[in-house]
Amino acid sequence: MKSLKIYDQQHQWFILAREDVKGKSLIETNQYMVRNGERTLIIDPGGVELFAPMLSSVLQNVPIDQVTDLFASHQDPDVISSLNLWDQVLTNAKLHAPSIWEGFIRHFGLNNVEYVSVKDDGGVVDLGGLQLQIIPAHYLHSSGNIHLYDKEAKILFSGDVGAALEEPASPMYVDDFNEHISKMEYFHKRWMPSNTAKSNWIERVSRLEIDILCPQHGRMFKGDDVKRFLDWFDQLPVGIAV
Ligand SMILES: [Fe+2]
Ligand SMILES: [Fe+2]
């Protein structure tokens, strides 16, 4: 684990943990946590190789029986291949994940954690009274893909949308948007398959108030850079392999 930072967001806080994968041929990932009272949600808990340091980081802040919810934006191994290990330590938890991936994600091993199947039109995660909105993001990039929006903190956890491929230990936030484009462009052109899905998603999230956009890879966007990202993504042709 490269770093662990805690942000206060009025009545709640979240942790960002970043994986240091230098020299390992793995993609660097961000893991996020939202806590409200005695309920804690881990967003895109990460790969199997990351489980031990993740668990240790979580336990420094939260008793294990208060880790009540997991969220998987989609089925990829960098998102949720640690599931079987979480399943062995969580005694009373739910996994919120896309309905169409249930039969696939269960292959990671699921005996104790309850799979809450999120329908295509999204829904809500009620974290002890904190209503986190599940935003459909299908085909961005997975065919069944969901994001999570915290209306109180004005944070959108955007999975692979906004992802950048860059050096581990890069700064937490984008500081020069134009310079950051070169780290995002290939990822979005190659891993995002649908221009229609992209336009639908931009229309959907443009109605939200977003102070911070938190992708699963690379730096976060805050303030004006959120709008800059949406405008840049809007004009980018995607679904290009060669
Ligand atoms: Fe992915
Ligand atoms: Fe990813």
Key features of this structure:
about 240 residues, binds fe (ii) ion, Metallo-beta-lactamase, Chain A, six-stranded mixed sheet, 13 strands, seven-stranded mixed sheet, alpha/beta
What's this entry about, in short?
The protein has helices spanning 51-59, 77-80, 83-89, 102-105, 177-191, 195-206, 224-235, and strands spanning 3-9, 12-18, 30-36, 39-43, 67-71, 94-98, 114-118, 123-127, 130-136, 146-150, 155-157, 212-214, 221-222. With 242 residues, it is an alpha/beta fold. A hairpin with a 2-residue loop joins strand 3 (30-36) and strand 4 (39-43).
Structure, explained:
With 242 residues, the protein is α/β, with parallel strands linked by helices. Helix content is 26%, strand content 27%. It contains 7 helices and 13 strands. It has helices at 51-59, 77-80, 83-89, 102-105, 177-191, 195-206, 224-235, and strands at 3-9, 12-18, 30-36, 39-43, 67-71, 94-98, 114-118, 123-127, 130-136, 146-150, 155-157, 212-214, 221-222. The mean pLDDT is 90. The protein binds fe (ii) ion (2 copies). Residues 76, 78-79, 160, 216-217 line the site of one fe (ii) ion (FE2). Residues 74, 76, 141, 160 line the site of one fe (ii) ion (FE2).
